[in-house]
Amino acid sequence: EEIEKGGFEHFMLKEIYEQPKSIRDTMRGRLLVDEGVIRMAGVWDHQEKFLKAKRIIIVACGTSYHAGLVAEYLIEDLARIPVEVEYASEFRYRNPIIGKRDIVIAISQSGETADTLAALKLAKEKGAFIFGVNNVVGSSIARITDAGAYTHAGPEIGVASTKAFTAQLTILSLMAIKLGKHNGNLSAEKFNALTRELDAIPELVQHTLETTAEKVIEIAERYKDSPNALYLGRGYNYPSALEGALKLKEISYIHAEGYPAAEMKHGPIALIDENMPVVIIATKTGHYEKVVSNAQEIKARSGQIIAIVNQGDQEVRKIADYVIEIPNSSEEFSPILAAIPLQLLSYYIAVKLGKNVDQPRNLAKSVTVE
Ligand code: G6P
């Protein structure tokens, strides 16, 4: 096992640091930047289905569900196809309306999650085209789907998903860009700009790992004994807030909630006082000014602000207790970069609390019972 960990203390840390490679592996052979092509046979062989789709429904659980929420922004923005994202466990029991022109995409690292598998079977019975985004080759979901695209993140051992999540975001970005190109919603210029940027994301992830870890360790030390934490984000980074909170809960057992920043005033704001750390994702693209004003509301109530910002940010720095800088990117790819310090923060808090990071209590890597 020590050999498998490759010098890292835990699988989770190893997997966090593997992300420049796992993202690159997921794009390999698919993203051909100089030729202006995205190759995805699973989509291309069924282009009729995708180009005529009325709606895409994404079903998933846990972290994969959060990747699905980012995909909703990606696909609606870039390809203008309506998307719904559902917890597989809810979808399967609510007599959903599904038609022949619907595409149901299951996102699952393991490809074995019982609820996701059952949701797909239901969609298939109702005549939808079913598509899998899985990491484990030959898994149950991969076997029953009409088509799919594997994330090539490599085996993920840590129960809390890290590299599988960013690989899912990578695949879903490729899909959204490809669909947008072929259904005429993305100009050649925008296609080229996005693909060039995505191609460089592994280096930016590497840079993020190198430049944020030290600061994150300091923040982990400061807040490790807090009983609660709130995570806020908007737009593409609203799912990032949910995922950040999930990571913290899973491995440190600290109660954490992720919320859309603007929704804070309808409840969570009541919890804010000097003992409440609030992690806020305030990247420059998207709804920056709005998030800044949400941060001001937190500060006015003496909340502790840990802000994830872009390099060179000036505004948030004035009000935040801690800032973590991530590289500048288009909004579309900011959840990949924001995921890195969020993963590291949960990891270091859990380690400092002496928790079993790779195998947290009560959780399983693959949930094959409902
Ligand atoms: C479990 C794991 C999570 C994972 C979820 C969905 O709860 O602990 O890390 O996100 O299942 O798993 P899947 O394999 O379907 O992505």
UniProtKB/TrEMBL annotation:
Gene of this entry: glmS
Shown stretch of the complete protein: 246 to 615 of 615
Domain SIS: residue ranges: 46-185, 219-360
Name under which the protein is recorded: Glutamine--fructose-6-phosphate aminotransferase [isomerizing]
EC number: 2.6.1.16
Protein's UniProt keywords contain Transferase: yes
The organism's place on the tree of life at top rank: Bacteria
Keyword annotations: Aminotransferase, Cytoplasm, Glutamine amidotransferase, Repeat, Transferase
GO BP: amino sugar biosynthetic process; carbohydrate metabolic process; fructose 6-phosphate metabolic process; protein N-linked glycosylation; UDP-N-acetylglucosamine metabolic process
Gene Ontology terms: cellular component: cytosol
Catalysed reactions, semicolon-separated: D-fructose 6-phosphate + L-glutamine = D-glucosamine 6-phosphate + L-glutamate
Assembly behavior: Homodimer.
Main location: cytoplasm
Residues at the active site: 365 (for fru-6p isomerization activity)
Subcellular location: Cytoplasm
Lineage: Bacteria, Pseudomonadati, Bacteroidota, Flavobacteriia, Flavobacteriales
Keyword match Transferase: yes
MF term (GO), any: carbohydrate derivative binding
Top-rank EC class of the record's enzyme: transferase
Function: Catalyzes the first step in hexosamine metabolism, converting fructose-6P into glucosamine-6P using glutamine as a nitrogen source.
